[in-house]
Amino acid sequence: MTNEMVAILDPVELRVLAVLAEKEGLTPDNYPMSLNAIVNGCNQLSSRDPVMQISEAVVLDTLQRLAERKLVNAISQAGARVVKYEHRMRIKWTLEQDKLAVLTILMLRGLQTAGEIRTRSGRLHEFKTVADVETALQFLIDKYPPLVVKLERAPGTKESRYGQLLGGEITIVAGSEQTSSSASNLTQGGRIAQLEEEVAALRGEMEDLKGQFEAFRQQFQ
């Protein structure tokens, strides 16, 4: 399928943004969120697919990128020592709470049926019926560009699954979910290039240390 995308987000950006939206509904008294709280939410073992282990530095860098794209807002409250963060998905894509809840669950837990979304939405939004979930899903599908896609029913299954499109187009390979898009590939390429630069810098520092140690050793020969 080919769709113009609203935004292409990498897996960490998706997780950070979804955690902000989830905690806004689950723990409103602790929202907006501190960096430490967001890290804990990203690395949470329950209600996450996949489970991640993301460092504070990576989460902070991700928040800064999302803020540049107007998807996150940083708040510095008077007298407060800690900067807090809030998502802007509701404003960015004009979403009421039921639609935001559906999108958030898909971002946190991958491909799901409408029934699974209803069961897992919990305190984010109380859907009375699966049909109510399907109505919210259809709204997200009908947006232009779309935020959600309905996948073809897999052989041997009774219900179709849905997936969010913020991370790129979805393809199913041997029953597993994969996202692919030129933009997301470029994002990954940029991350790889950055890591390669960091490795090269570390190697340079190691060579300098070796030289200093050798000079120090020769003083005692």
Question: What's the SSE blueprint?
Answer:
Blueprint: H1 11-26, E1 33-34, H2 35-42, H3 56-68, E2 72-75, E3 84-87, H4 89-92, H5 97-109, E4 112-113, H6 114-121, H7 130-142, E5 148-150, E6 161-164, E7 169-173, E8 176-180, H8 182-218
Antiparallel strand pairs: 1-3, 2-3, 4-6, 5-6, 7-8
Helix pairs in contact: 1-2, 1-3, 1-5, 5-6, 5-7, 6-7
Largest sheet: 3 strands, antiparallel
- As a percent range, the share of helical residues equals 40-55%
CATH homologous superfamily? Winged helix-like DNA-binding domain superfamily/Winged helix DNA-binding domain
Secondary structure tally: strands? 8
Structure description:
- The chain is of the alpha+beta class.
- The chain has one domain (11-180): Winged helix-like DNA-binding domain superfamily/Winged helix DNA-binding domain (Arc Repressor Mutant, subunit A), CATH 1.10.10.
- Helices cover 51% and strands 13% of the residues.
- The protein has eight helices and eight strands; from the N terminus they run αβααββααβααββββα.
- The strands form three sheets. Strands 1-3-2 form a three-stranded antiparallel sheet. Strands 4-6-5 form a three-stranded antiparallel sheet.
- Strand 2 and strand 3 form a beta hairpin.
- Helix 5 (97-109) crosses helix 7 (130-142) and helix 6 (114-121) packs across helix 7.
- It is elongated and about 80 Å long.
- The N and C termini lie far apart (70 Å).
